């Protein structure tokens, strides 16, 4: 029960890492506000939690839309009285070297991955500041630290999230709010399955190539990232501030051959 008495809001929790974190956080005693763009997927996450005896509500919202996010935050506080942990997890993938990325695709990924982190933070922070307490987890990626082929737009957004995290930490430390970033390597979720289909004529060959760049020889699982998020959400990480936490099978600091 590492999150007993904590209220957690997770964006993009209808799928992949967000869903896995929602299920784990609920098992650890949190009251979970599940957000997603897709109602069916988000409702399903909340229903699984409730059927396991946990507490969860689903709130549909688009993290790129200020009105939608503001209403989500108000409804979350209406449901559980406060938000102790905000996990800004929602994100989309982008493929291509810079010259291959069309302006609309660029704007879309920047909107979801950067504006979609800025907006929930903007509307949750005043509540955390008033209570002088909170833990914020911003989803970056190991591509913020290393160059990977044909990931220009995605890397730009995840680098922005990491820089934002450090800057936010300085501004909110005096309110007893911690702000940290997660930097996963390649984790097998629908997001990566889509990336493989978009990027490779032979997705299985693409997958085998990705496995080779991991020191682990395997892709990560959503549960691996959820466990790291649990640590950042809990008071066990109370001395971690403005830090990147890598869960990457050795991709950033290791060298394979
Ligand atoms: P996923 O399975 O695709 O889950 C992402 C969720 O975010 C989806 O349910 C998606 O809904 C939702 N979402 C997208 N746009 C949204 C919006 N505007 N408002 C609210 N929700 C929205 O992906 P994942 O692999 O779990 O990734 C989660 C996060 O981890 C992302 O930020 C990703 O960049 C990051 N990450 C992933 C990996 C990896 O290898 N998987 C590695 C590093 C970092 P829809 O399905 O309706 O679009």
Mean pLDDT: 97
pLDDT under 50 segments (min length 5)? none
Shape descriptor reads globular
Q: What oligomeric arrangement do these chains adopt?
A: single chain
Q: Class of the largest domain in CATH? A: Alpha Beta
What is bound: which ligands? NADP nicotinamide-adenine-dinucleotide phosphate
Beta-strand level of the residues, as a percent range? 5-15%
CATH topology of the largest domain: Rossmann fold
Tell me the domain tally. 2
CATH homologous superfamily caption of the largest domain: NAD(P)-binding Rossmann-like Domain
Secondary structure: helix percent: 40-55%
Which H/E pattern describes the elements?
EHEHEHEHEHEHHHE
CATH architecture of the largest domain: 3-Layer(aba) Sandwich
User: Rg to the nearest angstrom?
Assistant: 17 Å
Terminal CA distance reads: 42 Å
- Profile the largest sheet: 7 strands, parallel
Helix and strand composition category: alpha/beta
SS elements, strand count: 7
Q: If strands are numbered along the chain, what order do they take across the biggest sheet?
A: 3-2-1-4-5-6-7
Organism: Cohnella zeiphila
GO biological process, one term: bile acid metabolic process
GO molecular function, one term: quinone binding
Pfam family, one: adh_short_C2
Describe the structure.
The protein is of the alpha/beta class. The protein is built from eight helices and seven strands. It has helices at 16-27, 39-51, 66-80, 103-131, 152-172, 190-199, 203-213, 222-233, and strands at residues 7-10, 31-36, 55-60, 85-88, 134-139, 177-184, 244-247. The chain has a seven-stranded parallel β-sheet, with helices on both faces. The model has no long low-confidence stretch (mean pLDDT 97). The protein binds NADP nicotinamide-adenine-dinucleotide phosphate (NAP). The site of NADP nicotinamide-adenine-dinucleotide phosphate (NAP) has 29 residues, from α1, α4 and α6. Keywords: Oxidoreductase. This is SDR family oxidoreductase. One of its GO terms (biological process) is fatty acid biosynthetic process.
């Amino acid at each position: 029960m590492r999150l007993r008495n904590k209220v957690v809001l997770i964006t993009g929790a209808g799928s992949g890492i967000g869903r896995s974190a929602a299920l784990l956080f609920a098992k650890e005693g949190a009251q979970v506000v599940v957000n997603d763009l897709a109602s069916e997927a988000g409702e399903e996450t909340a229903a699984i939690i409730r059927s396991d005896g946990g507490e969860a509500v689903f709130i549909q919202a688009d993290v790129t839309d200020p009105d939608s996010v503001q209403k989500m935050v108000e409804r979350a506080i209406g449901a559980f009285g406060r938000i102790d942990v905000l996990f800004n997890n929602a994100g989309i993938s982008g493929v291509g070297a810079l010259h291959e990325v069309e302006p609309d695709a660029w704007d879309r990924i920047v909107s979801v991955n950067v504006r979609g982190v800025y907006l929930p933070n903007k509307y949750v922070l005043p509540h955390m500041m008033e209570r002088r307490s909170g833990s914020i987890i911003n989803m970056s990626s190991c591509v913020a630290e290393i160059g990977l082929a044909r990931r220009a737009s995605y890397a730009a957004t995840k680098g922005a999230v990491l820089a934002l995290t450090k800057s936010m930490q300085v501004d909110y430390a005096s309110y007893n709010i911690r702000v940290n970033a997660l930097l996963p390597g390649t984790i097998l979720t629908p997001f990566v399955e889509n990336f493989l289909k978009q990027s490779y004529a032979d997705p299985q060959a693409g997958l085998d190539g990705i496995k080779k760049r991991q020191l682990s020889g395997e892709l990560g699982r959503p549960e691996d990232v959820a466990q790291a998020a649990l640590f950042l959400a809990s008071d066990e990480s109370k001395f971690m501030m403005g830090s990147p936490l890598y869960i990457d099978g050795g991709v950033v600091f290791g060298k394979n051959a």
